[in-house]
Amino acid sequence: MASVQIQGLTKWYGKRRGVEDLSLEINDKEFITVFGPAGAGKTTILSLIAGIIAPTRGSVRIGGRIVDDLEPADRNVAMVFESYALYPQLNVFDNMAFPLRSPKSRMAEDKVKNRVLQYARLMKIDHLLDRPIQALSNGQRQRTALGRALVRQPDVFLLDEPLSHLDAKLRHSMRAELKEMRTQLGTTTIYVTHDYLEAMSLGDRVVVINQGKIQQVGTPKEVYFKPASVEEVAKQFGDPEINIVDAKLRIVKGGTQFQLQILGENTPLAVPPEVAEELSAYQLENVRIGFRPADVKIAKDGKKDVFHGLVYSFEPLGTTSVLTIDAVDGTKVRTIVDSHQFYGVDQRIAFKVEPESVIYFNPVNGKFLARSGVMLESRSHG
Amino acid sequence: MKTGSSFFQLLGQGSKTFLLLVYALFALFPLVWMVIMSLKPDNQMFSTTFIFSPTLENYDAVFLRSDYSRFFFNNLCVSVLAVVVSLVVGVPAAYALARFQFKLKEDIAFTILSFRFAPEILVILPLFLIYQKIGLYDTYLGLIWVYQLITLPLLIWILRGFFEDISPDIEAAAQLDGYSWWQVFLRLLLPLVRPGLVAAGLLCFIFAWNSFTFPLLLSASNAQTSTVVALRFLASDTVHYGQVAAAATISALPEVILALLIQKHLVRGLSFGAVKG
Fold first, then answer.
1. For tag attachment on chain A, is the N or C end more exposed, with fewer CB atoms within 10 Å?
2. How many helices (H) and strands (E) would you count in chain A?
3. Which of A144-153, A158-167, A285-294, A367-376 has the lowest mean pLDDT?
4. Is the per-residue pLDDT at B108 higher than 50?
5. Using CA atoms in the order B187, B189, B194, B199, what is the torsion angle rounded to 10 degrees?
6. How confident is the model at residue A382 (pLDDT cuts 50, 70, 90)?
7. CA-based nearest residue in chain A for residue B178
8. Residue A70: its chain B contacts at CB < 8 A?
9. pLDDT given for residue B79 in this prediction
10. Cβ–Cβ of A84/B178 closer than 8 Å?
11. Which pLDDT value is given to residue A381?
12. Are A361 and A230 in contact (CB under 8 A)?
């Protein structure tokens, strides 16, 4: 059990950037998910913490102790690799016993047996212990890899996309199982993933990383509701993707209130007063706004404050459907609708945008400006 | 329809068996012929084919009445040591060429392979002169050294493929599990490349054992090997085919025995990609 501090961690692979100037504090027993697209530097972070690769600059502390000069074997860190990295010539039991039999641990063989059995039961692979690795399914390999990492009872537990090679159904159940397990184990965990659902459902906090740099650190709610930027954060979370549109900011009622003009229509979209207050400091004429598909509601035509468009596509997905609307100015607006209703292509349609759910971004650099509504639990991390 | 397909299946099976049989005869016949010849007395060499009065006279002449066994031992010594040296040098080299990124990596790998491009006879003259000068002519060390030209490229290139097949993650995982690099190498990597190691080692031994040009020109009475000495039975007055055959039979034995012993590994090792996680 230990906290992890990362300071100014930088890694260049020759002229290619791995990660740049990464600083992060991870509390004892915290479950951190690191989220980012492929090539963002996620695995590099884990390898640096584990000591598999040496940083170009910066340092890592585990449990307050600087580990920069320690070999991977001396860091008491366990890692589950994306490829599982099981030892092909050993069976499941010997794979799991491997760390316990190491010269570092030198555990007595009967203790090894007990410990392996204990964790094999936890991972539900106790019936597979004498199977060779080649005879396992992907899911079973993944459990073996997790089990091998767990048996050592490490200070820090590093997971590199452990669910990415599983089929969708298994991934879902493993996610639930991991969530259950983390409460049992209570080990500091850093979990790397490119799946925003995993990142949000598992993490106490989510670290969003892109192009080797940290874009945002926050609770899953913070990252979802107050994304730090358009491209790197807002667009990465949620499916279908968040709607991002350019908006004109109009001052009404003598400069105390704002309205937005969007989608090429005159329909005003009111800016909530608390947001208006924050926005007035920036003196902007234009903003970029984002609203989630779920916050777009189909309305009756002719009503006040509605926008118009034609149905562009309609994809039923079971209980809900994704409806894409071709708005007046040609913007494609994505919404989530009930599957009971059917929409035909090119059907005229009117919709409303929930003013309380709009997120405001800087039109130039796409950074977060303000948002109203949503009460976020007051945890002041990072 | 069904009978038709099973007829063709049968035909396919039958012709496959037939072709394999033909090939087996083709491959085995020289060996069988060699053994038969080695058992014939000189005067029946040309007058009989399969029916003759067998004798161990030739073996007696080769082994008890000549010093062939000394050269046989020479060959064994030089070949085994050449393989050992190749293993000691080649395994780490193959690992490095598979794992690490360094300048001129591919050039070095290619240079090593290129040792096998030129026929031995092409480089023998300068080698002969150099060996004379530095006193390596007609020594074990000299032969072992020059055999590296034959064995090392083979070993490095076969093993490099095996090391490349092992995910670096496995090494990292084992290091995280509390093992030093050396322990990882000895306990995990070597067992994983064992099929390749065995196959490459055997091939190296066969090439070294059969080597003719180098020992012919770089050794004399002292370090000469059995391949060269076998020619002596073709000597001056008459050609003792029976004795040549006996010498060749004995010479082929170590290879045959080794190959049979490690047959299982040999097939796996030569079909590559045997390391699957």
1. N
2. 8, 21
3. A367-376
4. yes
5. -150
6. very low
7. A73
8. none
9. 92
10. no
11. 42
12. yes
Report chain B's mean pLDDT, rounded to a whole number.
85
Q: Is residue B29 assigned to a domain? A: no
Task: Between B255 and A377, name the one with better pLDDT.
Answer: B255
Provide, as residue numbers in chain A, all residues whose Cβ is less than 8 Å from the Cβ of B174: 87, 98
> Out of A110-114, A259-263, A319-323, B191-195, which region has the weakest mean confidence (pLDDT)?
A259-263
- Rounded to 10 degrees, the C-alpha dihedral B65/B70/B71/B76 comes to 140
Please tell me whether the peptide bond between A316 and the residue prior to it is cis, using omega within 30 degrees of 0.
no
User: Percent of chain B at pLDDT above 90?
Assistant: 18
Position B90 scores a pLDDT of: 93
Which phi and psi (to 5°) does residue A301 adopt?
A: -65, 150
The answer to whether the Cβ–Cβ distance between A99 and B170 falls below 8 Å is: no
Residues 6+ apart with CB under 8 A from B270: B199
Mean pLDDT to the nearest integer, B72-96: 92
User: Is residue B45 in some structural domain?
Assistant: no
CA B208 – CA B147 distance, rounded (Å): 6
Report the pLDDT averaged over residues A322-334.
Answer: 87
Q: Which residues fall within 8 angstroms of residue A4, CB to CB, at 6 or more apart?
A: A24, A25, A26, A49, A60, A61, A62, A156, A188, A190
- Domains identified in chain B, total number: 1
Report the Cα B86 to chain-centroid distance in Å.
13
- Tell me if B192 is assigned to some domain: yes
CB A136 within 8 A of CB A128: yes
Distances (CA, A) of A274 to A188, A222, A316, A353, A356: 38, 18, 37, 18, 10
- Position B83 in a domain: yes
For chain A, the average pLDDT equals 84
Interacting residues of A58 by C-beta distance below 8 A, sequence separation 6+: A6, A7, A8, A9, A10, A21, A22
Q: How far apart are CA A42 and CA A36, in angstroms?
A: 7
Minimum distance, in Å, between the CA of residue A38 and any CA atom of chain B? 18
Asked if residues A271 and A259 have their Cβ atoms less than 8 Å apart, the reply is yes
Are A102 and B178 within 8 A, CB to CB? yes
CATH number at residue B254: 1.10.3720.10
* Boundaries of every domain in chain A: 4-231, 243-371
Q: How far is CA B75 from CA A174, B68, B78, B86, B153, in A?
A: 61, 11, 5, 16, 21
Under a CB-based contact definition with an 8 Å cutoff, are residues B122 and B190 in contact? Answer: no
Report in angstroms the alpha-carbon separations of B144 from B89, B112, B147, B254. Answer: 13, 17, 5, 18
Which of A87, A151, A153 to probe the B interface (max B CBs under 10 A)? A87
Question: What are the beta bridge partners of residue B29?
Answer: none
Task: Write out chain B residues lying below 8 Å of A133, CB-based.
Answer: 277
User: Which range has the top average pLDDT, A206-215, A281-290, B62-71, B260-269?
Assistant: A206-215
CB A102, CB A122: distance < 8 Å: no
The answer to whether the Cβ–Cβ distance between A134 and B177 falls below 8 Å is no
Q: Which fold is adopted by the domain A4-231?
A: Rossmann fold (3.40.50)
HEC sequence for B168-233: HHHHHHHHHCCCCHHHHHHHHHHHHHHHHHHHHHHHHHHHHHHCCHHHHHHCCCCCCCHHHHHHHH
Token pair, residue A185, equals 């184990």
CATH fourth-level superfamily of A243-371: Nucleic acid-binding proteins (2.40.50.140)
Q: With beta carbons under 8 A apart, name residues in chain A contacting B185.
A: none
- DSSP conformation class of B62: I
Range of the domain at B90: 58-270
